[in-house]
């Protein structure tokens, strides 16, 4: 199998395996009404998915320096299918939803980064160096396509056949990803198992690397914004619809989120290519600064005509995702090969811990400012995203003397 065929098939497995990731946010207004959730409750359920991810990823991603990531990927894809199916059959309120979403996040920790590491391990060799860089960019950018598909399928199925059907389809997607990965990832007989002298959860060598640390901290700020936005975008658009004149035609909020995800995927790829040409630190900083400005004003746009609000949402998703692949590449390529799994584990631990807290913070701000029943309330909620994402370029600037220009 050619390197680029392998990359394409693993990206496909990633996409179909991610249908469950945003099933709950895509149907958030329905769950809030049916289960009588507060915004803080909804924030907990949104955030616990990424909390489960951040708890599991240090172990699972670090293990890929010692065992073939294929094995971790296949077990975790099966767990993802079980978590989505369990939600469909047994979730009936806050606590049961919290448990199954946490389990789903743990499963994602075993598919996303271990899947990338399994792919990179199969592209070793000087002749495949360019393919490896492209693999990192496309695989991480395809994460956005998976989020887009998750929003679209979940919103469509939930509106027509009920939320349980959306989670059943998500379980089927995870099972298909398992089968595809099993076919395209051949076991590696000589996978590196003892190439590092560090302990499994010893992140000190990574944190002592100033380049890796800088990109990891910038990635943490990026994830706060991206997943705070993703988790609450559908609910915000639903609120904007209530302010529109009667009879206004509009795209369903989940569809807007899905379209934004498609656009954002290419923003991530384009950002990575610009970073290769003009310098990674410079491009990442410019994108994050533009995204900060968007965060400051986006929540206050709810009263605009809905088509303008929808276009602003797509633009915001474009900016929020634009630096993602460049940050991933910066983290991975700045670490020695024997510590790349540990570097990805550290990055994911910091980043997804931030992603877990952001939806909760937005929900808390909404409840503290009137329950999300006014434009001011939503404006203040999204402002919390901008206050954190600005720390990314500030961190890169502060550590500029320790970073390579690229």
Write the layout of secondary structure elements.
Elements: H1 3-17, H2 23-26, H3 28-35, H4 39-63, H5 69-90, H6 94-109, H7 112-121, H8 129-161, H9 163-184, H10 204-207, H11 210-242, H12 253-278, H13 280-298, H14 306-321, H15 324-333, H16 340-368, H17 375-389, H18 391-398
Helix pairs in contact: 1-7, 1-8, 1-9, 4-6, 4-16, 5-6, 5-7, 5-9, 7-8, 8-9, 8-12, 8-15, 11-12, 11-14, 11-15, 11-16, 11-17, 11-18, 12-13, 12-14, 12-15, 13-14, 13-17, 13-18, 15-16, 16-17
Describe this structure in words.
With 406 residues, the chain is mainly alpha-helical. The protein has helices at 3-17, 23-26, 28-35, 39-63, 69-90, 94-109, 112-121, 129-161, 163-184, 204-207, 210-242, 253-278, 280-298, 306-321, 324-333, 340-368, 375-389, 391-398. The protein has a single domain, classed as MFS general substrate transporter like domains (Growth Hormone, Chain: A, Up-down Bundle), CATH 1.20.1250.20. It is built from 18 helices and no strands. The two termini are 32 Å apart.
């Amino acid at each position: 199998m050619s390197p680029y065929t392998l990359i394409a098939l693993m990206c496909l497995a990633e996409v179909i395996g991610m249908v469950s990731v945003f099933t709950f946010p895509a149907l958030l207004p329905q769950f809030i009404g049916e289960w009588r959730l507060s915004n803080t409750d909804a924030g907990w359920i949104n955030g616990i998915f990424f909390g489960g991810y951040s708890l599991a990823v240090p172990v699972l991603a670090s293990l890929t320096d010692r065992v073939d990531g294929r094995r971790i990927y296949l077990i975790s894809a099966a767990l993802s299918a079980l978590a989505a199916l369990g939600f469909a059959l047994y979730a009936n309120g806050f606590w049961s939803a919290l448990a199954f979403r946490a389990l789903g996040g743990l499963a994602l920790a075993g598919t996303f980064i271990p899947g990338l590491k399994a792919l990179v391990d199969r592209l070793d060799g000087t002749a495949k160096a360019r393919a490896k860089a492209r693999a990192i960019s496309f695989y991480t950018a395809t994460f956005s396509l998976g989020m887009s598909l998750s929003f679209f399928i979940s919103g469509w199925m939930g509106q027509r056949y009920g939320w349980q059907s959306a989670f059943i389809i998500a379980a089927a997607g995870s099972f298909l990803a398992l089968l595809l990965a099993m076919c395209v990832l051949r076991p590696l007989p000589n996978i590196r198992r003892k190439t590092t002298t560090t302990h499994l959860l010893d992140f000190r060598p990574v944190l002592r690397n100033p380049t890796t640390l800088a990109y990891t901290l910038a990635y943490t700020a990026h994830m706060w914004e991206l997943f705070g936005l993703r988790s609450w975008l559908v609910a915000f658009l639903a609120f904007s619809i209530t302010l529109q004149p009667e009879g206004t035609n509009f795209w369903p909020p989940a569809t807007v989120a899905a379209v934004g995800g498609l656009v954002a995927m290419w923003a991530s790829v384009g950002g990575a290519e610009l970073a290769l040409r003009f310098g990674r630190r410079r491009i990442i900083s410019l994108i994050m600064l533009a995204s900060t400005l968007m965060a400051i004003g986006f929540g206050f746009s709810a009263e605009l005509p809905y088509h303008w609000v929808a276009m602003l949402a797509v633009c915001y998703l474009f900016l929020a995702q634009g630096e993602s692949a460049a940050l991933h590449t910066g983290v991975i390529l700045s670490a020695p090969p024997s510590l790349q799994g540990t570097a990805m584990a550290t990055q994911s631990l910091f980043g997804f811990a931030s992603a877990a807290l952001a939806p909760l913070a937005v929900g808390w701000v909404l409840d503290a400012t009137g329950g999300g029943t006014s434009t001011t309330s939503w404006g203040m909620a999204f402002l919390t995203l901008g206050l954190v994402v600005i720390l990314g370029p500030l961190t890169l600037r502060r550590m500029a003397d320790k970073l390579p220009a690229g």
